[in-house]
């Protein structure tokens, strides 16, 4: 009997038999291999998103696995295929969907938040959410494709180009992945700003320049690194008020500021600087199919040192321990859960 990790309203987690819904038309059943613990999952665990969940609920969306079964109307997928899930199930009829922007559907079902997720052995999803993986893809690294696709989307909308200077505000998983993708775009210099020394050390090991805004004059450091020009692209990934306040000071004339972090409350932004330097503020959210395709190619190419981002691996029965560890240890980057265990 497949097992699932059910999150309760009191933030306890129970491991018990997974619900096994009958396969409907348009669906596929996946044997989950790995699922990463996302920052959003941590927000859910802390009780910040209770209004979107129906407890007890299985969460998790950064997954990899293999196809176990497909409905008889599905073509192009077969049992045994290695896959990842792009966990967006749009309504298909709202204004965003009608305009070709279904990834930001007004009624979006984000699988793993608004409906059951991947912290379980067996997972039923709409087949349209699946991307097949190249033969031989490491399923452990494939669990990083979802957050990597976020970074691919951010870089694509930010139009990072060869020779440009890039600053990333926030050195967590998404910040570091944005820096890594910017490097693949040919960025001349990539600077990561972060207050956690362990993450700064990792950023340096990955080949990036770093700065600590608590200790460093970040504006001067960016000016010095760019010969006074400023950053062509600034990724705001931290959600921290000081970073948001500084982002317009770091951008070059006609620079692009890409808002990646979820900032739930209004934050002051220097709109005079936006006017004065003709800056662009660009909102980005999740990803589109082409971003998943790019992320899959990057993983398959082996050009990104993704192993360095994985700071722990735990079996499914230890999911509660993983959340506690992430909650208490700011040095963690990415914890992967082995969903074949339990």
Task: Give a verbal description of the structure.
The chain has 2 domains: 3-143 and 305-338, Quinone Oxidoreductase, Chain A, domain 1, CATH 3.90.180.10; 148-283, Rossmann fold, CATH 3.40.50. Strands 3, 4, 5, 8, 9, 16 and 17 form a 7-stranded mixed beta sheet that branches. A 6-stranded parallel beta sheet has the order 12-11-10-13-14-15, with helices on both faces. The chain has helices at residues 39-45, 95-98, 139-142, 145-158, 173-184, 197-205, 218-225, 241-250, 271-276, 289-301, 319-328, and strands at 3-7, 13-17, 27-36, 62-70, 82-85, 88-89, 109-110, 122-126, 130-132, 165-169, 189-193, 209-211, 231-236, 251-259, 280-283, 310-315, 334-338. It has 342 residues and is an alpha/beta fold.
Spell out the helices and strands N to C.
EEEHEEEHEEEHHEHEHEHEHEHEHEHE
CATH topology of the largest domain: Quinone Oxidoreductase, Chain A, domain 1
Q: Name the CATH homologous superfamily of the largest domain.
A: Medium-chain alcohol dehydrogenases, catalytic domain
Whole-number average pLDDT? 97
Taking the sheet with the most strands, its summary is: 7 strands, mixed
Distance between the termini: 10 Å
**What is the rounded Rg?**
20 Å
Structural class of the secondary structure composition? alpha/beta
Assembly state: single chain
CATH architect. name of the largest domain: Alpha-Beta Complex
Counting DSSP H or I runs of 4 or more residues, the number of helices is 11
CATH class of the largest domain: Alpha Beta
Percent helix among the residues? 25-40%
β-strand percent reads 25-35%
The number of distinct β-strands equals: 17
């Amino acid at each position: 009997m497949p097992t699932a990790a059910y999150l309760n309203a009191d933030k306890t987690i129970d491991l018990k038999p997974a619900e096994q819904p009958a396969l409907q038309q348009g669906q596929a059943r996946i044997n989950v291999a790995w699922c990463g613990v996302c920052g959003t999952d941590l927000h859910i665990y802390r009780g910040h998103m209770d209004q979107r969940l129906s407890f007890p609920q299985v969460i998790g969306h950064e997954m990899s696995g293999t196809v176990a079964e497909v409905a008889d109307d599905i073509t192009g997928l077969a049992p045994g295929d290695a896959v990842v899930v792009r966990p967006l199930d749009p309504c298909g009829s709202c204004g965003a969907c009608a305009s070709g922007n279904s990834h930001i559907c007004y009624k979006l079902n984000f699988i793993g938040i608004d409906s059951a997720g991947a912290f379980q052995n067996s997972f039923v999803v709409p087949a349209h959410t699946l991307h097949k993986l190249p033969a031989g893809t490491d399923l452990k690294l494939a669990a990083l494709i979802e957050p990597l696709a976020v970074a691919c989307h951010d870089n694509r909308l930010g139009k990072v180009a060869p020779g440009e200077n890039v600053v990333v505000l926030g050195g967590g998983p998404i910040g570091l992945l944005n820096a890594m993708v910017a490097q693949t775009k040919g960025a001349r210099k990539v600077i990561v700003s972060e207050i956690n020394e362990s993450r700064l050390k990792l950023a340096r090991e990955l080949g990036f320049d770093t700065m600590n805004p608590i200790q460093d004059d970040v504006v001067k450091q960016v000016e010095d690194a760019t010969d006074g020009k400023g950053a062509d692209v600034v990724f705001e990934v931290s959600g921290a008020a000081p970073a948001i306040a500084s982002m317009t000071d770091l951008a070059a004339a006609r620079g692009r500021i890409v808002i990646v972090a979820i900032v739930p409350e209004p934050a002051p932004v220097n709109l005079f600087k936006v006017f004065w330097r003709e800056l662009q503020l660009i909102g980005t959210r999740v990803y589109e199919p082409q971003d998943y395709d790019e992320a899959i190619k990057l993983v398959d190419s082996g050009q990104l040192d993704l192993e360095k981002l994985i700071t722990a691996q735990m079996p499914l029965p230890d999911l509660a321990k993983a959340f506690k560890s992430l909650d208490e240890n700011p040095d963690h980057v990415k914890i992967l859960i082995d969903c074949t265990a339990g």
